[in-house]
Structure formats: C-alpha cells, structure tokens
Amino acid sequence: MTRELKLPSHIVFLLEEVGNCITEEIADLPEGVHAELTSLSGKGKRMRALLVLLCCLLSGKEHPVLIKTAAACELLHLATLIHDDLVDGHTARRGHPALYTKIEPASAVLAADVLFARAYALFLECRSFPVLTVITRTLARITTTELQAHQNRIGRSLHPGDYHDWISGKTASLFSASAACGAILAGFDRESCMNLTRMGELIGLAFQIRDDILDYENEKRGISDPASDLYSGLITLPLILLVQKKGVMPEYESWFSGSREPDIISTLTREVFESGSLIAAYDYAMKYAQEASDIADLFPVSPGRDVIQRLCLYTVTRTG
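-> structure tokens emitted (320 positions)
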C-alpha cells in the first residue's frame, strides 16, 4: 500500500499553476483575510483540482482554461469548508484553527461568499454551458445537503443508505463534478464523460469514508482534531457498523441524547476499534476505490491513467 501520492513532474507543475491562479484570485482581499486564506488554501491536497487535470489529460491534450477550471473547483471546495466549520462549530481542521476563529465569523462567511463568486467567474471563462450546468447543480446539491445536515435531517441516521446519500451530497458530489469538468474540457463523448463522472464520485466516497476513519484514529492517537464527528453529533460509517454488530449500547444512547462527556466519547471510540468496525469501514472505502480504478481501466494506457489509479489507492491509505 502507499501512503504518499507521487506525481509526475508535469502534473506537479500544473498543480503549481493552479496554486498561482488561486493566489491571484485572493490577492486583493483585505490583508488579514488574505493571509489566512493563503495559509488555508496551501494546506489542502487539491484533490479536486487534480481530478480536473487528470481527467482532461486522459485525452492526451490540455485545454486553454484547464488551470482556471481546476482552480475554480478548489475555490468552491475552500468556500464550503469555511462555511462547514462555522456552521458545525468545528474550531480546528486537521489540527489547524478554523478560519472563523482567526477572523470574526461574519468576515469568514463573507470571505467564503467571495470565493464562491470568484470561482464562478473562472468557470464562466470556460465558455462551456455543460461545465456551468454541472457546477451549478453540484453547488445546489452541496448546499441542500448541508442545510439538511444542520437541521438534523441527515447525518443522524444508522441506516447505511442514508449515510451514503449524505456523503455523496456533501463530499463526493464535488469530486464527481471535478472529474466531469475535466472530461468535458477534454471533449470526451457522452459515455466517457459519464464514466469519469462516476469515477470521481467513487473516489469522493472512498475519500470521505477514509476521513471518517481518520477521525477515530486521531482520537486513539491523540493527534489533530480528534473525534470531531462524535463531538459534533455526527453518525459516520464506523459508528453505524459498530451498532450493527453490537446493538445500541448505553453509551451510544447517552451520546445520541446529547451527552458529549469525554468518557462516553472514549468508550465509543474504543468499542469502534475493538469491534473491527474501522476495518470493515476501510473495506467499504477500498471497494469504492477499486471500482473507480476499474473505470480508469476503460481508458487507454497513459501516464495520466496510471496516476488516477495510484490516486484511487492513496485515497484510502493516506494518513491525513
């Protein structure tokens, strides 16, 4: 297994260009906001931008607005993270302070709105109605999903199908859209675009499940922002699998009723580990990653296809 994703020098160069584009888009913002956004944007893996690049490069050619489209997808992602942290009350993300804790919450909301607007301005430069359609529908889906989660309509169910729908809307949808944008820019036919769109969704599902696993692993190891999902009252796949295996425990009932006592969190975390629920969740993630890799196999052998398949494995083996 691999815990690092090594990219060809050409892809690294393109990602650097994406970073430069993002830097240009936030350069004129107020100094304090600019500094924090620069720091925040530099910490991400830019997976969505990478999918745009790789899906386009499968065709063997680069589109004139490829970099701007990839940067726009990252700006959308960054904006949703800022909103999510504020709405969910997360004070940290991957061990780093959430933006609203560094600048006032109102400024954080407005900064995210600016990112949304500038992302759309970049998408407009594609002059592609299919790209705009994909992105508009995706943003509608993401925001609707987050509203439902905030009102406890999703993210609080022990049904695996509900969990799938939740992570598909909140995370996998932008992975899917990013892959679709790359495929559209490449000029692929309808079937190929649909395949790559599905591939992006599968990678996004695997990515989110791995994130949910890491939340428990971080609690066990005492690093980063541990057990943030449990403290936020979110039911993710490891907890669903635990209840399926052991039934509704008293600690779960207390937690579900609103108790966030450290001993209850620690007990649930320990039970998730000891029950093998993390291993079972990992199997789910690997299944999605393998399905994504199988779709990549439908395309001709190329350096881009090789990177996509390594990306699929990296998605479920990463440690952060």
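The chain has a mean pLDDT of 91.
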